[in-house]
Amino acid sequence: MLGKAIIKKAIGFESAKLSLRIVCSSNTLKAYQSTSSDVDYKHHIDHRFDDSRMVTHTKLQKPSEANNEENLESSPSQNIATALSHAYRADPTRGTRPIYLDVQATTPLDPRVLDKMMNYYTGLYGNPHSNTHSYGWETNTEIEHAREQIANIIGANPKEIIFTSGATESNNLAIKGIAKFYGSSSSGIKKNHIITTNTEHKCVLEASKSLKDEGFEITYLKVDSNGLVDLKELENHISEKTCLVSIMGVNNEIGVVQNLKAIGELCRSKKVYFHSDCAQAYGKIPINVEDMKIDLMSISSHKIYGPKGIGALYVRRRPRVRLHPIISGGGQERNLRSGTLSPPLVVGFGEAARLMAVEREADIEHITKLSKKLVDSLLKIEETSLNGDPNHRYHGCVNVSFAFVEGESLLMALRDVALSSGSACTSASLEPSYVLSALGKDEALAHSSIRFGIGRFTTEEEIDYVIKAITERVEFLREMSPLWELHKEGVDLNTIEWSGH
Amino acid sequence: MLSLRTTSRILLKPKTYIPALTRSYHAKVIDHYTNPRNVGSLNQKDINVGTGLVGAPACGDVMKLQIKVNEDTGVIEDVKFKTFGCGSAIASSSYVTEMVKGKSLDDVGKIKNTDIAKELSLPPIKLHCSMLAEDAIKAAIKDYKSKRKATVLH
Amino acid sequence: MNTAVKSALNTSKQLSQQSISSLNASYMNNIQLFTNYNFREYFKRKYQREFEKLNKEFATNDSNAINHYEQLTEELRLIKRQTIINQLYKFDELIVEQK
């Protein structure tokens, strides 16, 4: 009797559990396909977070312009929709933030990278160099794991990766470190010649320039009109006094890819160290340090959808590259770069590198497709030219010149697209880009060049908007330009005597 | 780590960096720029049309200003401009066309670049745009007068 | 909770078309909650590709299918975490977006 009751109860309990399980699973199923009123899928808003959400409204104006701001809406002429007014007039049905096409300057942080980093901003806050407790051990393990992920992309050994605060510091460490080693009296032969190109990043040029005061000779190789380095000329310039050749992988302004393998072979045969600033190239073009015989390589995290403030320098161990550190301290990073490593930044960097490998095929396909569409449509406009070699290029960086349109007015016309005319470092000083001048472009053409950066997160819709905007606005500006009118009439502008100031 | 990067950035900045050379535009400049008045060309060969072409592409500013003068009254009937230059240059020339329409040649000859600069609130770095606009209108008047003189002599 | 659902749905160690499509649906619903336009469009593209691959693997009875499925269920948790963070910080919409 009792047994039956127990069994009944047991069965009842089991069936209840089963039904509860079914109820639970169907509830969770419902949760996945939530139709609750809290979530508004159409407007991408989850109302459950309304009481904790922070809303930031962004301003289109530069801080210096904010003082001059008057209400543009009140002006009567604003009612007329000219091609350019779209750049300024706020369409109430559409958003206001510009389209981001400046990935060579920096990239947005991939959410999957942020996910990995959050651990280190919340609970895992230990100093990785504290080797007496688990807080240190756990962060140290993760940092070493990140080092391995970064090394795998270029076929290097994890021990050869030195973390720095960014590609600028890596470039400085490479150039000044080698210079310090060879310039000091402790080494046997004194080598004081460094070769670089005149299209390098500003930090490489400045670092080399600063070495001139210490008795170094710098050769700035000229590039041809397509931006490529001439190997014969490089070979001619290498002497027994040369200690370093520094040539970047992918140019940040025109997107030209140098022949790293050939340069590496040449430098190895002449026993000269080869440094390459691969901030823009890492993860985007296939790089193998063994294959290409690269001895030093600068890497930047915020160009590969990672966090800002961290970078790395690859320093070859076999055959050993002798470097002097430029930062002294506790001897971290093989005594080449002392200082506490930041676990969130390093782990974010590692995850970003891992994702570059995982997503590479899909990214290259997507970026190439968008880039081809953009370039084809832009070159359809009259008197436009693509800067840089059309074959040896990275498709994510497109630099186009628009003749007979003044550069500043063109940028002003494209206010609703975040673009750059040349590199971010030099854009503040309204000088034409030195890279374009090095290609032999005349100053006017260099002034009216625009650099478009296409990345993983750029969509086809954004590219379509940009193509339409540029076609309309360039046409508008050319209608306003007397030089265009003269060109159309067949007058050669060089024959006119300008009154000029 | 951060402080070294910022200090090295400051030390490595090119010597030619001048903070004042940033672009800042007044609302009126933007207005003239997005909706320029009187853009176009007049028939250069017409006896009543004076053309002023000033500036140089190397400097980054070229203005072409054309005025059509009524030969009986000496009043400017129509004016058209075309400019190759920055936003302030376009705004200056557009504003000048507004200023001169319907005025007599003598009045127009008195236009000063300071009037243009004041109206558009041009920053000091862009004052040369207003000077160029003044030069353009003076050149147009000169061209018209020389054409008239040539026909009178005939 | 996740493992309970998994075990409730797949009582045998076999995938079913229904479980794949329900995972796909939950991905698409969650990705809609990214306030950032670029992330939203990117993840839609990426996971469309992933599910095409998974469906192909399932159709050809590839042994990788079950691992792929489990990897995707784990990545869904990541997407949910990141949409929550995205929801917490809202910015103005892009020019190409409808308000």
Automatic annotation (TrEMBL), chain A:
Catalytic reaction equation(s): (sulfur carrier)-H + L-cysteine = (sulfur carrier)-SH + L-alanine
Alphabetical keyword list: Iron, Iron-sulfur, Metal-binding, Pyridoxal phosphate, Transferase
Domain Aminotransferase class V, first and last residues per copy: 99-466
Any one GO CC term of the record: mitochondrion
GO biological process: [2Fe-2S] cluster assembly; intracellular iron ion homeostasis; mitochondrial tRNA thio-modification; tRNA wobble position uridine thiolation
Cofactors required: pyridoxal 5'-phosphate
Enzyme class: transferase
Pfam families: Aminotran_5
Known EC number: 2.8.1.7
GO molecular function: cysteine desulfurase activity; iron-sulfur cluster binding; metal ion binding; pyridoxal phosphate binding
The family this protein is said to belong to: Belongs to the class-V pyridoxal-phosphate-dependent aminotransferase family. NifS/IscS subfamily.
Function: Catalyzes the removal of elemental sulfur from cysteine to produce alanine. It supplies the inorganic sulfur for iron-sulfur (Fe-S) clusters. Plays a role in both tRNA-processing and mitochondrial metabolism. Involved in the 2-thio-modification of both 5-carboxymethylaminomethyl-2-thiouridine in mitochondrial tRNAs and 5-methoxycarbonylmethyl-2-thiouridine (mcm5s2U) in cytoplasmic tRNAs.
Protein known as: Cysteine desulfurase, mitochondrial
Source species taxonomy: Eukaryota, Fungi, Dikarya, Ascomycota, Saccharomycotina
UniProtKB/TrEMBL annotation, chain B:
The UniProt record lists the keyword Lipid metabolism: no
Pathway(s): Cofactor biosynthesis; iron-sulfur cluster biosynthesis
Keyword terms, alphabetized: 2Fe-2S, Iron, Iron-sulfur, Metal-binding, Mitochondrion, Transit peptide
Intracellular or extracellular location(s): Mitochondrion matrix
InterPro entries linked to this entry: ISCU, NIF_FeS_clus_asmbl_NifU_N
CC terms in the record's Gene Ontology section: mitochondrial matrix
Sequence ranges assigned to domain NIF system FeS cluster assembly NifU N-terminal in this UniProt record: 25-149
Name of one Pfam family that matches: NifU_N
Cofactor: [2Fe-2S] cluster
GO molecular function, one term: iron ion binding
Record GO biological process: iron-sulfur cluster assembly; tRNA wobble uridine modification
Superkingdom as given in the UniProt entry: Eukaryota
Function (record text): Scaffold protein for the de novo synthesis of iron-sulfur (Fe-S) clusters within mitochondria, which is required for maturation of both mitochondrial and cytoplasmic [2Fe-2S] and [4Fe-4S] proteins.
PANTHER family for the chain: IRON-SULFUR CLUSTER ASSEMBLY ENZYME NIFU HOMOLOG
Family, per entry: Belongs to the NifU family.
The protein's name in its UniProt record: Iron-sulfur cluster assembly protein
TrEMBL record, chain C:
InterPro entries per the UniProt record, alphabetical: ISC_assembly_LYR
Top-level taxonomic group: Eukaryota
Gene Ontology BP annotations: iron-sulfur cluster assembly
GO CC terms: L-cysteine desulfurase complex; mitochondrion
PANTHER family recorded: LYR MOTIF-CONTAINING PROTEIN 4, PROTEIN C6ORF149
Name of the protein in question: Protein ISD11
